[in-house]
Amino acid sequence: MLVILSLPAFAAWSLFDSNAPARVRNLRLVLTLVTMMIMGAIVFLRQHLLDHELMRLLRTSEESYDNLKTLQTQLIQSEKLASLGQLVGGAAHELNNPLTAMLGYSELLAESGLTEEQRTLASKIALQVRRTRTLIASLLNFARQVPGDKVPVDANTMVQTAVKLLQPQFSSRNVTLQVNLTDALPQISGDPNQLLQILLHISGNALQALEEVGGGILSIKTRKKENAVVLEFSDNGPGASDPERVFDPFYTTRTAAKGAGLGLSACYGIIQEHQGRILCANRVEGGTTITVELPAVGTPPLTVTVDSSEKLNASALATSSLNLRSDQ
Asked: Would you say 165 and 203 are in contact if contact means Cβ atoms under 8 Å apart?
């Protein structure tokens, strides 16, 4: 910097030096001016690079601050979910006694001298009570941080069970169900209760969407894709406003009374635990398709295409939200 500041003085000396010929003085002046221009360009370029680096550091610090705020929010939500899990675990324990009584009475009714239709209804009550008890057991496991056991599961059987449980809702909501199951599918390894919750929630979510437009068609398909079993849920409803965000925790376009936005996030967590993937896309002809891919027994895990870093404690949500099928 001192050299740059001294260049004008050197230029003046070169111009007014009476001991040097005029040509030499002019040459000195030109060389000094050129040197000043070069040095000025270097200083300007250096300052520009410093400004650019400063802006980059500012952007990085802003991104880091935003990430810190997001992590803080996620931590708060995780603490809330942990507390919620403990509370639900306590309530679930208290629910076991009346459910046991309901199960016993419904089984007695099914074996008594009722009509065939009445015995069928009693059997359905018993089935739902058993399912509720299984859900409560899952909630208790979550409160105790006990992972569920994974066993070989037939995807077609799971779909048929889910359809049977949801059948009354299809007619009441003016929804036509189309089921297309591929024969001889390989088995998948998973927790049957958690996988059933995925099917029930995705189907229930589609039912709610179709109900908003007065009814429609829900199509459930199974097929084999290389080393995976694929389940597709397609509807001709209004479609998802932002398909890329439907698996984010607490994201919902519905009112708070109709859901907290945890259902599909819970499904995402369950799928991750089962080393599979879940995708959502709007159909060109209208409506939404949710695709679930799960690895067949004895095959490598699938590559998860949704960024898990953007999902809030997905595995915890997966278990704590097992009974939130109608939340979204």
From this structure: no
Asked which of 166-180, 183-197, 297-311 is least confident by mean pLDDT, the reply is: 297-311
- CA 165 to CA 177: how far, in whole Å? 13
Side-chain half-sphere exposure of 146, counting CA atoms within 13 A: 11
> Which tens digit of pLDDT belongs to each residue from 55-75?
888 888 888 887 777 777 766
How many angstroms separate the CA atoms of 8 and 159, rounded?
87
At position 125, the amino acid (one-letter code) is I
Rounded to the nearest angstrom, the gap between the alpha carbon of residue 8 and the centroid of all alpha carbons in its chain is 66
Short-list 326, 292, 321, 278, CA closest to 135: 321
- Contacts of 318 by beta carbon, 8 Å cutoff, 6+ apart: 194, 266, 267, 268, 269, 270, 272, 273
3-class DSSP state of 5: helix
CA distance 315 to 70: 18
**Amino acid making up residue 263:** G
Residue 287 tokens read as: 């409506």
What is the C-alpha to C-alpha distance for residues 283 and 285, in angstroms, rounded to an integer?
5
In degrees and rounded to multiples of 5, residue 187 shows phi and psi of: -75, 155
